[in-house]
Design brief:
Helix content is about 70%, strand content about 5%. The chain has 17 helices and 2 strands. The chain has a two-stranded antiparallel ribbon with strand order 1-2. Strand 1 and strand 2 form a beta hairpin. Helix 3 runs antiparallel to helix 17, helix 5 runs antiparallel to helix 15 and helix 5 crosses helix 16.
Length: about 325
């Protein structure tokens, strides 16, 4: 009887083995054989490692060497010549110049950070809302999904070059278009309604950023939409049977289940916003490096400071948002 359990495992199906095990004497426990190979959690870990392997290799062979060289150049003066360049060590002189002497760099850096803190929540809210709408069942859903993914296409290649030249955002010349835009001007109406000036300025700023918000939210919409489709429908069915409303389902199921993706989209949006060439600090650093009296060494030191600020902001946002993240197993 000692090998009773192992014999059952070999000659009987699992269901019958379980029934036989329940009827087996208490003194003869069934010994189950351990399965060979990786568990489901191990297979997922391997799949995740393979997925991020290209990123790790890219970081190791391309990104990190560039950062190391940038930090090294920021402590030197670069003397460019026909045969190459030479380096003269200057210590922290360029950092002191950027922080304490160059007021335009400080202004552009503060302006870029302020724009980021204002634009990132708007992009996340808009992309979350549009993903919720596109996740519903209605006619033409695939068409509208493709339309709202156009910002990703717009932000690449030749179209981006045209956008930077303001060919898409130039003021309309026709009187009809000008009258239409003036009719949509809400500022005078809000003033007549007695709304505080601070709120009016915020609303007008949001309206002025509509094009920027839409063009910056394509990837975020796609990530939120894919995440919503991974939520088990049984959760909504169970909550609806218990009497939950759509609003309660959103805050009790949808929002917690999407919280990890909110963190991912927040980090992506911060990097995308600060790294854009439309950012004031990016434009100023390019002007310092390529101007008439341009100095590549100063611009590299400014870039290192800017990169450090990005890391600090991302770390703070990650710590704060991670406390609200819910992981569903």
């Amino acid at each position: 009887m000692k090998k009773f359990g192992s014999i059952l495992e070999k000659i009987m199906p699992r269901k019958k083995a379980a029934e036989a095990a329940a009827a087996a004497p208490a003194g003869n426990p069934i010994v189950r054989r351990k399965k060979k190979g990786l568990s489901l959690q191990g297979k997922r870990a391997v799949a995740g490692l393979l997925f991020v392997t290209p990123l790790i290799l890219g970081m190791a062979f391309f990104f990190l060497p560039a950062i190391i060289d940038a930090v090294k150049f920021s402590f030197h003066k670069i003397n460019r010549g026909i045969g190459g360049y030479t380096l003269d060590y200057v210590g922290f002189s360029w950092y002191d110049y950027a922080i304490n002497q160059d007021k335009w760099y400080r202004f552009s850096l503060i302006e870029s950070l302020a724009n980021m803190f204002f634009s990132v929540p708007l992009v996340l809210i808009f992309s979350f809302f549009m993903a919720s709408v596109l996740n519903q069942k209605f006619r033409g859903r695939a068409f509208f999904r493709a339309i709202l993914f156009l910002p990703v296409i717009i932000s690449a290649g030749v179209v981006l070059k045209l956008d930077n030249l303001n060919l898409f955002t130039t003021a309309p010349q026709s009187a009809v278009a000008a009258d239409t835009i003036s009719a949509l001007d809400l500022v005078p109406l809000l003033i007549k309604l007695g709304m505080p000036t601070s709120i009016i300025s915020q609303i007008s700023s949001i309206i002025a950023r509509i094009y920027e918000i839409v063009t910056a939210s394509g990837v975020q919409i796609l990530i939120f939409l894919a995440a919503m489709q991974t939520i088990p429908p049984s959760l909504y069915e169970a909550s609806t049977m218990d009497g939950a409303t759509g609003w309660e389902n959103f805050w009790k199921i949808t929002f917690p289940m999407l919280s990890p993706y909110i963190l991912s989209n927040a980090v992506y949006t911060i990097v995308d916003n600060l790294g854009s060439f439309k950012s004031p600090v990016m434009q100023y650093m390019v002007s310092v490096a390529t101007g008439i009296h341009g100095d590549l060494s100063k611009s590299i030191a400014m870039a290192v400071i800017f990169f450090s600020c990005q890391l600090v902001v991302i770390a703070i946002i990650t710590v704060l948002v991670s406390r609200l993240v819910f992981y569903y197993d």
